[in-house]
């Protein structure tokens, strides 16, 4: 473990000696993550990318990718593109990345069950803005918007995310 690792603790997400309040999944932490259980998966994960809403924010880092109209994430375990980025029109179950609320204005993607997704092991474990302080997520890790904006440019792909 190093100071450059993101480490989930009972107090929040620790990075470079500072702890940021965070919310986790409504199902708590799980070593046996399943699609729809609302749990945040335990383990050593990696940041794989950074997405942002270009109509709401400037690019937060050189490696950030814009979230465009029609951008989706497949969450259908029966779908060949399960736990992958897809585009509209899309018939299989999916989550919209371009939301009306600000939760996904800035999103760090992780390698949970990706790129070789196992059906039913869970999809889309992101770091994103929280709805309200410590309000549970569907399994993601959520932070205050200002903290997420501060952290995002410091977390390039490959950054370790440790969820003990």
State the end-to-end CA separation. 12 Å
Biggest beta sheet attributes: 10 strands, mixed
Counted by DSSP, the helix tally is 1
Strand percentage lies at 25-35%
Helix share of residues? under 10%
Number of strands: 15
Integer-rounded radius of gyration: 15 Å
**On the 0-100 scale, what is the average pLDDT?**
97
Q: Based on CA inertia axes, which overall geometry fits?
A: globular
Structure commentary:
- This protein is mainly beta and 164 residues long.
- It is built from 1 helix and 15 strands.
- It has one helix spanning 145-151, and strands at 6-9, 12-15, 18-20, 22-23, 29-30, 40-41, 43-52, 65-66, 71-74, 85-87, 94-96, 106-110, 126-129, 141-143, 160-163.
- Strands 1, 2, 3, 4, 7, 8, 12, 13, 14 and 15 form a 10-stranded mixed sheet that branches. Strands 10-9-11 form a 3-stranded antiparallel sheet, with no helix packed on it. Strands 5-6 form a two-stranded parallel ribbon.
- The chain is globular and about 45 Å long.
- The mean pLDDT is 97.
Question: Which properties best describe this structure?
Answer:
164 residues, mainly beta, 1 helix, 3-stranded antiparallel beta sheet, 15 strands
